[in-house]
Amino acid sequence: MRWLLLAAMMLAGCAELGLGDGTSISVGKPSNGYLRDGVRLPDRGDGWVTREVWRTRNNRFGTDELVDLLTSVAHRMRGQVRDVKLVVADLSGKGGGERVAFHRSHQTGRDVDLLYYMRDANGQPFEPDAMHVFDPTAHAVDGSGLAVDVPRTWALVKELITAPEAPVQWVFMYEPIAQRLLEHAQRTGEPDAVIARARKTLKQPGDSARHDDHLHVRIYCSAADRAYGCVDIGPMELLAEREAEPSQLAVLAAALAHAPGAPTSTPGATGALVAGSAAVGGAAVGGALWLPLRRWR
Question: Does residue 163 sit in helix, strand or coil?
Fold first, then answer.
């Protein structure tokens, strides 16, 4: 019965959370909205750091989902990139809303700017000190000799678009750099499905900066936030694809059903767990089950 108790406890935590319980609420569109009870991303952590220019602005706030995504992706990148950290720039201001001096979007806690991984003039890893503008060959235009580290930046994009913590809608990026990342992915034998998802996610905006000095990540509204007025702008295809992937509870139920000592003939038990899992975000990635650190949404 232990496995049934565990599943029941998990299901009990699946109730949608929101206003008044301390969890974040993203309201409105990314360029016309606000953030309630946003989470402040620390200035540094396991695998990431923020430079003084962005610490001073204090645009350090995001939804629970965005902060979970950033801290988890940075941690996983730390396992691949040990000599430099991911540099995180602006999220949203406390309370969200328009920050005219810095951004037109970033208003609802679902946007974050990240710096490209870089190499110096000698080809050595370089932890970005600032945003450097890159030309179509992915080399800095300021004569510093810096260049985008394409393999590591691709690894970052791959982590973002497959991360179970939150579904990424866009990674805004200068198209020539995006093309270099996709070509690298093809050369190194990345799965076609991953490359196709990256191609749908990577986009050079047509109505703002071309993002040749940083990449801008935006996540979809959570189901709970959508109920409070969060609005996604643009295609919903990637969200539909993510929601069609196996949920974490469905994977857990299947694993528990085949675990030693689990009942072998309880009509409807596993099916009920799987049906109940629709309210749970997340997915099984690479055969590993992700269990959220904050709470079920």
Answer: coil
Residues 119, 83 within the same domain: yes
Can you give the length of the chain in residues? 297
Could you tell me the pTM of the whole model?
Answer: 0.77
Question: Which residue type is seen at 144?
Answer: S
Q: Are 212 and 206 in contact (CB under 8 A)?
A: no
How far apart, in whole angstroms, are the C-alpha atoms of residue 128 and residue 130?
6
**Where residue 96 falls among pLDDT bands split at 50, 70, 90?**
confident
Indicate if 125 and 235 belong to the same structural domain.
yes
Of 221, 243, 265, which residue constitutes the final position of a domain? 243
What span, in angstroms and rounded, lies between the C-alpha atoms of 29 and 216? Answer: 16
Which residues form the domain of 256?
2-12+246-289
Cα-trace Rg, the chain: 20
- Give residue-wise pLDDT tens across range 125-157: 999 999 999 999 999 999 999 999 999 999 999
Lay out the sheet containing 44-45: strands in order across.
44-45, 48-49, 86-87
Name the token pair of 165: 């913590």
Q: In this structure, are 111 and 202 located in the same domain?
A: yes
Largest CA distance in the chain: 69
